[in-house]
């Protein structure tokens, strides 16, 4: 039996305007609110007690017991309580801060920004509701200076209620099942069902911060880049809010801080002679070259000078797709990379700097030049690392597990379109992002999938005409209704694992057929967007058996032999599933999570990692533009 989970969930449209990453400047200050927050899960039967008793109106500790909760982090693995690990419904976070008196002065905006919270959030400041947001993995913010002004002394109590409930219309979708069978289940039994293969971690996953801007401020910047011969061209658009006639100045500085171009006006073109292009890692000896685009605005308004300054890192590069190649800066690019997850012991999906730097070091050790943000947008801090290190990114939205025909309806589609708005708005200026992925393994053979994906991909292209768009498929090539609209075919397959388990000998046949079928039908380049096998680290057999290190190696080797033939034709990339082991829901096919990592969850290499490392460095030397003397590893 399924009941509409109205008490679990409220709906609201996306916020408008820009979503620039907060950066300090001469006109902007930041206060990070990371650390310990007060926390309580609402265990009441309808999960609605917090709203009924208005827990946001006073200190959380006044309405009941609170525990320490670190931010950013998922709350699920922080305590020893299985009821919190598997909790469904509203949890409450609270933090008190003092705001400097200068922040509440006339002429200043104070913005409260949440990097991401899974899944639905309601935010109050000093008991006054300031925003709601639907969807994990993307930032949201609200101006709160008016609320702060009402409360002299700078006290600022932030309360955030977060609900992890997934329904047929959320992204990712899920269903809430109420089971009423006293002979088999306890009373009021509720489970959350999902169709995706990772744990539905929840909470405040990314930094929460306060930042200031002047009242008239740079709200958004859009940069498109190209080049001709040695001249780099950046066309930009700046939107300033709060001033009728802004005078915008734009400068472009190179890595050494030298100004190489400048312009005035809210839109224009910057020309850079002898431009350093943005190149991927291992494709060039100086990868990830970023300029700094300084945008400033100044004016005199009733006797005072207002000024806002913002510096955006930008890379100059082009992306193009032909029917057999993926071109970066007009050179063929071969994706040799990974699929990842935001996932780790204890912190779940919480942003973690040591883990992030470790993962980039492992990518470089591996010789990987790319990753896909399977299956949702990653933290902005990760995207910035990818820009700086020249790691190419396929940027995926949380459209994973769309398997039920009811998730192809209008409500789902309009939310999906809104999520693409938010994703493109956030990530459009990242040089590392070379393609958008609107979904992973949807039921693309269902009748409504054609209209759904046609609309979704056309919308994404209208938001960003410069990047190819795709979705990742595991459907039959002849019946897939979304594939006609993609620029690059991205296929997942698990031969000798989910199909013909234990039979490595089928891989060369089935993989060859897969490629020939897709290319034959569409004449579009193909990325093997997932392939792999589970390994429980330390298990060994010969001949290889499933779940051993030897078997994963053999699966990889068999796939690679086919890739090596087909990459001479139209295969343009291979992304292993997965970079590291990760947590999933509990099921009979998962031994404490998915073990298809080439690294363990603690980032220790399995045998497959060494095999892949040799291959990726070899590919880099063959397909990159590196000088011959480049050593085997960085
Ligand atoms: C897939 C999914 C991925 C799973 C993987 C697996 O096709 O895209 O989310 O984790 O297979 O290991 O089953």
From TrEMBL:
| InterPro entries according to UniProt | Beta-gal/glucu_dom_sf (IPR036156), Galactose-bd-like_sf (IPR008979), GH (IPR017853), Glyco_hydro_2 (IPR006101), Glyco_hydro_2_AS (IPR023232), Glyco_hydro_2_cat (IPR006103), Glyco_hydro_2_CS (IPR023230), Glyco_hydro_2_N (IPR006104)
Q: Name one GO molecular function term.
A: carbohydrate binding
Q: Which GO terms describe its biological process?
A: carbohydrate metabolic process; glucuronoside catabolic process
Q: Which SUPFAM superfamilies match?
A: (Trans)glycosidases, beta-Galactosidase/glucuronidase domain, Galactose-binding domain-like
Domain Glycosyl hydrolases family 2 sugar binding intervals: 30-214
Entry similarity comment = Belongs to the glycosyl hydrolase 2 family.
Assembly: Homotetramer.
Protein name, entry field:
Beta-glucuronidase
Q: Which organism is it from?
A: Oncorhynchus mykiss
